[in-house]
Amino acid sequence: MKNPSIIIKGVWVAIGTLALVAFPLVAPNRYVVHIVNMAGLYILLSLGLNLAMGYCGQINLALGAFWGVGAYTAALLNTHFGVPIWVNLPIGMVFAGVVGALIALPMLKVRSHYLALVTIGLAETINIILVNETWLTQGPLGISGIQMPTLFGIAIDGDERFYYLILTCVLIGFLVARQIVRHRIGRSFIAIRDDEVAAKAMGVNAAYYQILANSIAGVYCGAAGVLYAHLNTYISPDIFEFKSALYVLTMTLVGGMGSLAGSFVGGLGLPITQELLRGIGNWELVGYGIAIMLVVLFFPGGVIGITRRLQESSGIRWPWARKPTVEPSQLEEPNVSGP
Amino acid sequence: MNINTVSIFLQTIVGGIGIGSLYALVALGYSMQYRSMGLVNFAQGSIYMIGTYFGIIWYQGMVMGLQVPYPIAFLIGIVLNMGLGLILERIFRPLANLDLMLMLLGTIGLGYVLDNMAIITWGAEGFAVKSPLPNTPIIIGGVALLPQMLLLIGVSAILMVGLTVFLSKAKIGKAMRAAASDRETASAMGIPVNTTNAVSFAIGCGLAAAAGILAAPIVYVNPAMGGPVGLKGFAAFILGGAGSIPGAIVGGLVFGVLEAVSAGFVSSAYTKGIAFVVMVVVLMFRPGGIVGEVTVDKV
Amino acid sequence: MKRTIVFGLVALLMVMLAACASPTPAPTAAPQPTTAPAQPAATTQAPAATKPAAATGEPIKIAIIGAMSGTNAVLGDWMKKGVTLAVEEKNAAGGIHGRPIQIVIYDDEADTAKSVGLAQKVATDDKVVAAWATTNSNSALADIPIFQQYKIVQLTNGTNVDITNKGSPYVFRACPAGPAYENPLVDFLVQTKGFKKFALITDTSAYGKGEADYQTAELQKLGLQPLTRQSYGIDDKDFTGQLTAILQTNPEVILFGGSEVASGLIAKQARQLGFKGQMAGGSAIATPKFNETAGADVSEGVYATAPYLTNDLNDMTKAFAARYKARWGEDPEVHGANTYDGTEMLIMAMDKAYPNETGEAIAAAFHTISNYQGLQGTFNVQPNGETIDKTQLGLWHAGVLSPVK
After folding, report:
1. Domains C37-176+316-379 and C179-306 are alike in CATH topology
2. C303-326: per-residue pLDDT in tens?
3. Chain A residues with CB inside 8 Å of C106's CB?
4. Which residue, among A45, A147, A236, would best test binding to C if mutated, counting the most C CBs under 10 Å from its CB?
């Protein structure tokens, strides 16, 4: 019984690794690689949101601000002092993590839709600072001329090479996230999400874990921001507006909130779907809106939820839809944000 | 132009109250829908925009060249938008039982649909609307009062008082309040909860249309007009206390005045930031909003 | 452990995308962009019944990137109309030595991040030789490194000065840059009219902030300091706060920096609050939209600068307006005119570069254009990519903008 499944697994891993490594080489043009690179950044953002919101139940619409803090940190350090991406990456992650922790402070006090508004307000405020503090950020014009990185003398100067950098970051980000959700931290997150009062009664320091969850979200978004700045070599405040947080929220909910695989499905699926639908203008956006409404009304668990439901009703083992032991299903309990 | 400090301050406050009335009407829309269905409708801004078009297209003679007087266009707009509200309520009935984030996403999806349908139907460019009242301001004590602004403030006040009276005196209004405070019991006592919900939703949409049509000659009508007003209306709704009727009014006026004062006296570049920061601070001390929350019985 | 399988599938999905998006392995094997949007094919066909031999050779591709949907859709629409008209006329007259110009159109939703992606797309997937990108200064700036890297001619009608400061030999601006609007306006108001007390009001966009900066710089050059500079968010509708702050300083002139609609509303509200002085501004104030929003009674006596004040400027603009109206059913405005001018120059450059239709050759040919008479005036291409620096001063009277003699 065990051997065939190991072989099948081995085949999957081999196919997966080969496909991931070969992708930029077989891609028809650089634009396709660019789309996948951006999708990789969205996966990082979505993983961060998923940990804070899907696992810890913290509503967070300030994602764009974390992303922006990472990107501006990298842009400023690079354009003023020539700091390379390898140094910017940890610095940007720490900065965004600190901002995440600071934004979490009001979260301890307010709940639910009040919290939604507070996070929107704080994110908008950070964006207004980016627009107005021209001496630092060059205002609405943005910062251009950010350098692309080099590694051991090899210039990572195009989307194809950058792809491997992003792939590495996404893989590390995923493995860390998996460790977090399996670790005691993740179990505490879930306990707080499901019943904060009970979790506190059981001795979980809810405030500590809520701040930690948002800080982790900040770190993920900060990494995505640093990568974005060095990939596109130009950033401006409008990229990090509230709408970007909504976009990441949409892909996470469509993929599956409370499931790391959901972040991959949503982060890759949404940009690619939009790309395939490109070109019909306003009708496309009408269709996008209707599709979102349909997902919310009929598949509130997202794509991962659909496959889980299929698996439960048909008994077929969809490999990506297994109900993991440490990830309580979202289907029976759609109320991810607590009462 | 000898403006003394007092009249400058009053002038700023009047401007804030004008724009605050607009936020308050939109916030009332949020409140009506939240009280009845527990639904936070983030498409309220788009509904406000559609309501504006529903009224203004008649006034502007965009429908078969008919030139309808402003008061009649105002009523047509409200009625049409209430009709839209009844349809939307049917669609969103299942949403009311879901988690807040799913509501957010579902109603934002609706916003996309409404905004882009408006662009397809009426174009993205938009137009200016001529005020039905004279453009010359009435000057009292050095403070310039614009007739259209006074109309906006006055009609908003009438609508707010009317709504409060309706909810406390009229039979269906009482039923709506009962349904809002305890759905299960109200339903058991024979109150048609689905009907009261539909009426609440429609009233919310009607108020949004009223706000939009009153403000149209002051602002500029285009499909993008809903976004910022929707966000600020939401802020007012939360600031006052989600689901509270007086809360929505207070929240709207406070937010409007806050914006005007910070633009005039603190820093115009940071207007929005100051308003949001003050709001966050208020919520830190009063997590249930200024007036306090009407708890909605969910689950 | 088994989650590695998810990775396998995710990777497969990406390879499938690669396969789907690839136009070449498709069995139909037509070089035409079957995966590209539907509009280009429809809008770029030369009218069949025109007299001169219409172009039939292998098409040369150019791209338009702009806001085609969403709330900024007007800007993309104007660009599409101006560029398409010029291209259709050229194709009907035989194209570039028999080769028709084909336009591919993409919607960046006025989103900088999307614009960068689309610049990559037109460069590597559509393999265009030139691209209009975009009216929005932010997106234009964001796209510069990409077009420079791929050696593709980039045309813009964004007005921010920085666009031509980035050292790219491939970027060209088909309209005057911001200071060309603000400097003559400020000079006129100070030197001819003798005003000394100026108040500035602008929005927080790249455009608005830029215009107010140029106004400030020119005032300082003339030894004046603005009394106050007020800002507002691009969505704001009530400006009482900013205006009362301005009125306290008792200015002679209010200078607008922001967009058409907001400036119109500000002008209206300023008059209602009792401001009796002069009002003036750059290109946004020279648009019919400003007049429509403010109302003719408010716009009366307002000064504005623009390279294209009205369609009735001269015979050339009148003929252009007639052709534009025949094609699109509406009167052109400044964006239609400057995209038409820019495309005409691009076509000249393509003709000159023939048969070497590469971005590099076309850019080199573009740089040699001088003394070209366009709708906006005389164009002389500068090494940094500026093409024209003259604007005209106009005065609003009875809802009509006319040049000041």
Report:
1. yes
2. 999 888 888 888 899 999 999 999
3. 278-279
4. A236
Q: Which single residue is written with the structure tokens 């301001």?
A: B137
- Out of C71, C240, C275, name the one closest to residue B12 (CB): C240
Residue of B109, B120, B298 with shortest CB distance to A292: B109
Q: Please name the amino acid found at residue C362.
A: I
| Residues contacting residue B46 through CB under 8 Å, at least 6 positions apart | B110, B111, B114, B115, B118, B226, B227, B230
CATH topology of domain B5-285: ABC transporter involved in vitamin B12 uptake, BtuC (1.10.3470)
Please write the tens of the pLDDT for every residue from B233-260.
999 998 888 888 888 999 999 999 998 8
CATH of C179-306, one of 3.30.70.120, 3.40.309.10, 3.40.50.2300, 3.90.180.10: 3.40.50.2300
pTM confidence score: 0.84
H/E run at residue B10: helix B5-37
SS3 C173: strand
Q: CATH number of the domain at C37-176+316-379, out of 3.30.390.50, 3.30.428.10, 3.40.50.2300, 3.40.50.2030? A: 3.40.50.2300
Q: Where are the domains of chain C?
A: 37-176+316-379, 179-306
Q: Give the model confidence (pLDDT) of A197-224 as tens digits.
A: 888 888 888 888 889 999 999 999 999 9
Strand locations in C247-342 (E): 253-256, 278-281, 303-306
ipTM: 0.82
Q: Is C393 helix (H, G, I), strand (E, B) or coil?
A: strand
Using CA atoms, how far apart are residues C310 and C319, in angstroms rounded to an integer? 13
Q: Residue C400's beta-bridge partner residues?
A: C397
User: Which domains, and CATH codes, for chain A?
Assistant: 2-321 (1.10.3470)
Can you state the percent helix, strand and coil of chain A, rounding each to 5? 75, 0, 20
Q: What are phi and psi of C358, to 5 degrees?
A: -110, 160
d(CA B270, CA C290): 25
C134: cis peptide before it, omega within 30°?
yes
